[in-house]
Amino acid sequence: AVMEVEVQNINGFKVHASHTCDGCNVSPIVGKRFKSSDTANFDLCSKCFAAYDGDELFEETLLARDRKSTKDYVLKIKTNDGPESTQIRRINVADVWGE
């Protein structure tokens, strides 16, 4: 069952195509990506980074392959497939990565 649908304007934001937020499971991370300096393969989106109150140290990270979005919008759908399972899926509305 769909719990939440959100349309985001991502025009000009960086798309971190190979990275998933370990806070909210959104993939790819759009906008700023924060990589843990302490734990391998631990990344947060800007929203989860702002809310984080743990002991990890993070640095804003940008890779050469991270590109600005060439399209304006992407749809984020949050679904609940069971009592313990929440998933967030980003749907490519109109060739978001320009490939």
Automatic annotation (TrEMBL):
InterPro entries: Znf_ZZ, Znf_ZZ_sf. One of its GO terms (molecular function) is zinc ion binding. The keyword Metal-binding applies. It holds the Pfam family ZZ. Keywords: Metal-binding, Zinc, Zinc-finger. Residues 15-58 form the ZZ-type domain. SMART domains: ZnF_ZZ. SUPFAM superfamilies: RING/U-box (SSF57850). This is ZZ-type domain-containing protein.
